[in-house]
Amino acid sequence: MIFKNNQLSSRFKQVFHNTGFGIMIVDKNxxxxxxxxxxxxxxxxxxxxxxGQNAEILHISNKTYKEFGEKAFTQVRNKxxxxxxxxxRKKNREKIWFRIAGDPVADxxxxxWTVVDITERVKTKDKIEQLTxxxxxxxxxxxxxxxxxxxxxxxxxxxxxxxxxFFSDIKGFTExxxxxxxxxxxxxxxxxxxxxxxIALRYGGTIDKFVGDAILIFFGDPDTKGEREDAxxxxxxxxxxxxxxxxxxxxxxxxxxxxxxEIRIGINTGYCNVGNFGSKNRLDYTIIGxxxxxxxxxxxxxxxxxxxxxxxxxxxxxxxxxxEKKDEIKVKGIAHKIQTYQVLAPYxxxxxxxxxxxxxxxxxxxxxxxxxxxxxxxxxxxxxxxEKLKKTDERK
Length: 396
Known about the structure:
Blueprint: H1 10-18, E1 22-27, E2 32-35, H2 37-43, H3 47-50, H4 62-77, E3 82-89, E4 95-105, E5 110-117, H5 119-136, H6 141-148, E6 157-171, H7 173-177, H8 182-202, E7 206-211, E8 214-219, H9 227-254, E9 262-278, E10 283-288, H10 290-301, E11 307-310, H11 311-317, E12 321-329, E13 338-346, H12 347-352, E14 356-361, E15 364-369, H13 375-395
Parallel strand pairs: 9-11
Antiparallel strand pairs: 1-2, 1-5, 3-4, 4-5, 6-8, 6-9, 7-8, 9-10, 11-13, 12-13, 14-15
Helix pairs in contact: 8-9
C-alpha cells in the first residue's frame, strides 16, 4: 500500500480506523504523520497530541529511542523485516510493552508500524522468571539447568552410576553453637557455606545438601567429565576448601570466635543410586547407598584439618595428587577393612615449592615427597636399595 502527500486511501481508512491493533506511520525523520484510534487509546494520547511530534516522546529514554532506530527503523527502511518486543512510554509515564512490526511505504520515505500490547504477557513472564530464580536457590545449578532445559523428568526415578562423593563438617562447631548469639552463628555458618559452595561450583560439583555445618557434594551426575577427572576435581576442590579455611578463620576471629575451627573431609568413589527420591508431591534429587555411607565414615575418621580418601578414589588420582597411606578402618556393612589415604598436595604444587624430589628415565622412577611424615622409613628404604645396587654393580 502506498501513501502520498500524507493522505490515506479511502479503502485503507476503514481498516486503519477499525482494526484491533495500533498503527502509526512515521516519516524518514521519525516524526509521526498518522496514528489510528487504537494506537492513541493504548498510549493515552489523542491524535492531535501526537501528529507532528517526533517518535522519541513514545520511548522510555533517549537511549532506547536510539537503540530502536538502530535495531528496527533503519532495517525497515532497507526493506528488512522487523518483529520485536519493545518498551514504550504512555502519556501518564507508565511503561507499556509492544510487539511491534514494521513495513516500508511511500518509496522508503515512510514506515508503517503495527503494534500489539503485550504488557501483561511480559509482566507474567517476569514473574515466572523471578519465581524460577527463587526456586533455583533450592537446587544445585546442574540440577536446575537439567530440569528447566527438559533433560531430566520431574518424577520418581533413580539409576546406578559411579560417583565420587564428598562429605565435610566443621570440627568443634557443635560446641560453639551454645556460646554464640543466633545472629553471629547464622553469619558464621552462612559465610562458610557460601565460600564452600562457590568453590564446589567452580570445580563442577553437584551440591546435594547442607545439614547444619555438614556438606554433601558429589561428582559424576548430572554432568560428568569421566571417572578419573571427576575424582581429581573433587579432591582438588577439597584442597582448595582447606586453604580457604585460613581466610575464614581470620574473619571469625575478628567476630570474637577464638576457637580454631577446622574442617574434616572424607571422599569415596563407587557406584551409588542417584536420582529423584520422595513422594509424588515432594521430590529430592540425591544419592544413597553404601558408598555414600563410606564417604561419611571417612569424614568422621579423618584427622582435624585433613582429607581422608578411600583406595578407590586414590587409584584414580594417585598420578596427579600426592597421598600418604594411613590405617585401615572397619565400616559397618562392609565385610573387609577399608584402606585409607590422606591427601597431601598435587605433584605440581610440591615440585613448584621444591618439596618433591622427582627423577624419571628408562628403568628408574623416583618420587619423594619431602613433607611425608615417615622420613626415616624412606631413608632406610633408599639405603637398602643403594646397597643392592652396589652389590649388583660389583658382580659385573
